[in-house]
Amino acid sequence: xxPPGLFNPWNPGLxxxxxxxxxxxxxxxxxxxxxxxxxxxxxxxxxxxxxxxFEIFRQVLAGGVKTPWIKHPGTTFQEWGVNVHTAKxxxxxxxxxITGAAFNNNLYTHIWEQTVQAxxxxxxxxxxxxxxxxxxxxxxxxxxxLTFLIIVVCGFGLNxxxxxxxxxxxxxxxxxxxxxxxxxxxxxxxLPKPMMQLPFKALREFRSVRQVVDKYMRERVNERQAYVxxxxxxxxxxxxxxxxxxxxxxxxxxxxxxxxTLSDSELMSNVFLMLFAGYESTAHTLAATFALLAVxxxxxxxxxxxxxxxxxxxxxxxxxDYHNLNKALYAYFEGTRMxxxxxxxxxxxxxDIPLPIPVSLTSEEKTTLVVPKGTIVALDVLGYHxxxxxxxxxxxxxxxxxEGDAKGDTLAAFGHGPRICLGRRFSTTEAVAFLTMCLRDxxxxxxxQEGETIDQWRSRVLDGRFFLxxxxxxxxxxxxxxxxx
Length: 485
Ligand code: HEM
Fold this sequence. Notes:
Largest sheet: 5 strands, mixed
Keywords: Heme, Iron, Metal-binding, Monooxygenase, Oxidoreductase
Bound molecules: protoporphyrin IX containing FE
Binding site for heme: 421
Number of domains: 2
Radius of gyration: 23 Å
Structural class: alpha+beta
CATH class of the largest domain: Mainly Alpha
Strand order of the largest sheet: 1-2-8-5-3
Oligomer: single chain
């Protein structure tokens, strides 16, 4: 990915991780007989260490505030200042403690209920109440709309619904629409600040959307703080969205005179972060899960019978059912394993660090590699997820492999250790609720082109696509109703 490399026609570029994910005679790790290798650029750039070994993931990601491994969070998450993603050492601990308090059962129940409601609104708006077959040309349009809706309602407390159109209340667009535009992967986010001022139309539009959201957020933070303080003072229960819970957790500390609080700008930076950190990831992963399920009707039947056992047909599933609906959860874990949006997690050695690594792919024997200060270690999430040593038959969709690992602790897609993704349960809650609602009513099938076989659909669709994060290609599916209405 170095500048000269970009002009090399054989350079797999951003798809490197995807193309090299498999283990096999001619693939990187197998070729060198190790699952930890040093990658040395031909012409430009520094050597890096790539690893698909989970023991090394654990070692590198294990340390708390005193870890010698440095996390570089990337420019997108720094836009609004210091937050739990960008903070380091003691500062991170303070951010994590307060933001972590917002991720509680109240929030998960709220997410669950809103997801169930969104499912009903979606199918009603589509007019599918008595339909036997329904076509969805691109499932990502649905998963993206869902996860964005959930983050603005449950994350930010906006009063909007599936059916709301994107019309004006500030200038030309609604706040949810402005937030959506701002949260989409955009190359503008990577431009240095002075370049953002260049007089191009697209840049001007991007700037103005940002200003609209910025101004709106600042006003809401002030408003919400005052509101939550009154609620706390009057001992009232308060709202369940993440923003209110965050303001409340911080407010409680402020009132207790604790020094461990967030400033207004830190609070806002965290709210922005939550809005933009995970909704696209969840949308991509859910789309991949739908695609995999479409070619695995037997897995759907298995999930369906569990839904019948746990929920039945006469009531809606509730957040209390989450732990008993683990077959839907395992399908989502498996989708996350095969299409992890974050393909690698990077850490820089802050000092010379000894790292015990296995001497070969098959050996238990270890040798010590001293990683020199300044070296970047890429924890190759994709490589690990396709490492047959950990996941036998890694190219096969086998949700039952997660039985016995109910929290997905061996999944690396959400990171690992103290800095593991704060939104992991947020993401799995909406995924399990949505899959449960869909699979109870419908069988998901591939939407085939004329003359296309299921195998051809599989090779056309079940492939990676990379734009800042990894996703599956556009997924066309058909829903077939399970029971007559
Ligand atoms: C499929 C969905 C998601 C994936 C794959 C994902 C992935 C990740 C990964 C890999 C990390 C760790 C990065 C590192 O250690 O360098 C992370 C951190 C984080 N994620 Fe997620 N994420 C998802 C959803 C979410 C959601 C929905 C939210 C919030 C609502 C969220 C909020 C965060 C935050 C705040 C952190 C930083 C935690 C810290 O540094 O203490 N994520 N995520």
